[in-house]
Amino acid sequence: MKAKIKRIEKITEFTNTFGTTFYHQLEMEGVNGAVGDKIEIGKKKKQEIGWELDYEITERGAQEYQKSKTPPKDVVPPTPVTGHFPQPFVKNDVQDDILYSVCLKGSMDFYLRQSEAGIEEKYGFNPTNICSMALEIAVQAKKDIASLKTK
User: Fold this and answer.
1) 3-class DSSP assignment, residue 148
2) SS3 of 13, please?
3) Three-class secondary structure of residue 3 per DSSP
4) How confident is the model at residue 141 (pLDDT cuts 50, 70, 90)?
5) Which domain holds residue 133?
6) Residue 139 confidence (pLDDT)
């Protein structure tokens, strides 16, 4: 529920290792200025009259001020920064995806052929190097195609 603060009855400050929390006893102003709920809520910042507050009552009882809390915000998945999470899906051009797949397949075929021929020992190729080269080729090919499209 969202309402404006009509009156502040009491503010109690509590400090611990997590910081300071201000516990407020508030009288809220309902729709069209009607008297709203009387709530008790903890906030990191002192609230002021006239501020709008989003809250939900967690415990109704015989007390004058009902215990409440700030409702949870919509959960948003973490944004990938360091590659630890999958990148968000971006629809690419189908031709770019085909080219990327062809480059990967070609490099893996090359690895299998050179492995069978014993070239790995002679030139020091290994699966990790081959995959890295395949990705570099595919990325460069996508960049080249993108630059051709803009010309």
Assistant:
1) helix
2) strand
3) strand
4) confident
5) 94-150
6) 73
Strands 19-29 and 2-16: antiparallel
- Cα–Cα distance, 135 to 107 (Å, whole number): 9
Supply the DSSP string of 123-147, one letter for each residue. H---HHHHHHHHHHHHHHHHHHHHH
How large is the average pLDDT for residues 117-127?
Answer: 61
Please report whether residue 53 resides in a domain.
yes
DSSP type of residue 83:
S
Contact 51, 5 (CB under 8 A): yes
Residues 8 and 61 grouped into a single domain: yes
Place of tokens 């809220």: 28
For tokens 């990790």, the residue is 128
Phi-psi region of 32 (alpha: psi -120 to 50; beta: other; left: phi over 0): left
CA separation for the pair 7, 38 (Å, rounded):
9
Q: Are residues 65 and 98 in the same domain?
A: no
Q: Is the pTM of this model over 0.70?
A: no
